[in-house]
Amino acid sequence: MKISASFYLLILVCLTACQQQPEQPKLTTKATKPNIIIFYADDMGFGDLAIQNPQSKIPTPNLDQLAREGLLMTDAHSSSGVCTPSRYALLSGRYHWRDFNDIVHAMGESVFKENQVTLPRILKNNGYHTAAIGKWHLGWNWESIRNKDFTEKIKAKHGKKDVEIWPAQAYDWDKPIPNGPLSIGFDSYFGDGTINFPPYTWIENDKVTEAPTITLEHPKKEFALEGNWELRPGPAVKGWDFYKVLPTVTSSAVSFIENQEKAEKPFFLYLPFPSPHAPIIPNKAFRGKSEAGPYGDFVYQTDDAIGQVLEALKSIDADENTIVIFTSDNGSERYAYDRIKNYDHDSSRPFRGVKRDIYEGGHHVPFIVKWPNKIKPGTKSTQLFSQIDLLNTLASITNSELPKGFQHDSFNFSDAWLTDATEPVRTTIVHNTWASKYAIRKGDWLYINNKDGYHTRIPKWFEEGKRFATAKDTVQLFNLKDDIGQTTNLASQFPKKVKELATALHKEQKTETFKN
C-alpha cells in the first residue's frame, strides 16, 4: 500500500511539534507568592504628596508614578499621631491604645509581648524571607547588655534640660541585644535604630557594627537645615555623621533587593525611612530641588530613595510580582506651620492639625499600593482604611495562616484592592495619640471626646489668621463629607449623634482583643 506524500508531511509536523514542546515549569514558592515591600515615611504629611495635593511645592515623581501605576487610598490612617504606636499597630494588626500611647524613649524597652503574633512572623511562617532596614523605634532590651559595675549615670544636656544617662562605657557592646526586630519575626535587620535617639551607631541584626565610645549631646557648631536637631543625648561612635543615615539605609535596601535575584524564597521588606523626620538634613545633591525649603528637599530625597529601590526591583525582574506599599507613620511635624508662612506649602492640606494632634492632620496619611496585573492602575479608593488592616489583607493575599484564636483589629481589604468591589470594608475607626483624647469615625461623622483636638502648640500668627468656628462644647462633632477641614463643631446641633458615637467609642475601648 502506497503512503501519500501528504501523510509523510503530517507525520513530520507532529514529530517536530513534539520535539519543540517546552517543559512545563515547576511552580516554586517564589513564583506563586508575591514579594512585599512596605515603604514607611517618617512624619510625611498628606499634603506633601504632589499627586494628591496640586498646591504642593514638593516634586514627588516616583511616588506620583507609583500612584499612577497602582491604587491611591485617600482615606487612610495611621493608628496614632506619633511614630512608635503607629509602627506597633502596623506590624501587629492591633490598635496601639489597647496597650500603650507613648513612644519608646531613648534606650527604651520593646513594646512587643513575648511571642506576639506579628506580620513578619506570619509571613515568615509562610516561607518568606523577612527583612527590616531603617528606623526601628520599637525598643530593645538594652538593660541586658549594661555592665552592672557602672552604678552612676552622667549628666548631659537635652535642649535646655539637664538629664542623667548611662555613658557608652556602661554597656558591653559585644553582646547581642535582645528583643529587637529578630524577636518579632524578622530574619534580618540593618539600621541605626532611630536617627535622633541613641545609640548613634549602625546595628546589624542584633549587634552593633561599631561600639560607641563617646556621649553625644549635640553636633558641635552645626545647625539642622530646618527646625531643631531633636537629638537625645547618649552613646555614640566617634565621628557619627547624621547626613549619611538616609543614603546608607537606601543603599542597604538596594543591595538587599539585588541579592534576591536568585533567592528561592519570596521576600518581605519593611523599609521605614528616617526621613523626613527631624533632623531635617537633606544631602547637598538634593538641596533646592523643591520650593518648600529644606523639608521639601528632604521629602524629595526620600522620594528619590524610593525610586532607587524600585529601580533595583526592576533590575532583577521582580517588579511584576511584588506588592509595593507606601505610607507614613503620622502627619508632618510642627515645623509645618512655618512652611505655610515661609513657602506657602501646607503639609497637612486639606486637613486641620499636624503630628500628635487628634485632628485629621495628625493621622490621615498618604497611602499607595501597587501590584502589576492584579491591582488596577491609576485607581483611587475612598474606603476608610487603617494601617492595622495591612496584617489581615496581606495574610489573605499571600494565603498565610493566621494562628487559631488570634484576635486582632485588622480588616481584610484584599477584595477592595483586587476587584471592583465598592462595599465598605470598614465603617468605623478609632483615632488616638495620647491617653486623654480619643476620636471615633463612623461613616462621614467624627466625634472627639474633648473640646480640643490639638496636642501640638499652634503658633500665634497661625491661630490669629486661621480662626475655626468651634462652639464652646466639651466635645466635638464633625461631618467630614461636608467639612474635611474640621472647621465647624456640630456637637450642639446633633446631640443624638454625639451620644451614638460616644457610646460606640466606649464600647470599642472596652473590647479586649489580645488573646495571642
TrEMBL record:
Which superkingdom?
A: Bacteria
Question: Mitochondrion: present as a keyword of the record?
Answer: no
Q: Which UniProt keywords apply?
A: Calcium, Hydrolase, Metal-binding, Signal
- The stretch of residues making up the signal peptide is 1-19
InterPro entries, per the entry? Alkaline_phosphatase_core_sf, Sulfatase, Sulfatase_CS, Sulfatase_N
Ranges of residues in domain Sulfatase N-terminal: 34-399
- Pfam families, sorted: Sulfatase (PF00884)
- SUPFAM superfamilies, A to Z: Alkaline phosphatase-like (SSF53649)
So what family is this one in? Belongs to the sulfatase family.
Give the protein name, as stated in the record.
Arylsulfatase
**Whose protein is this, by species?**
Winogradskyella marina
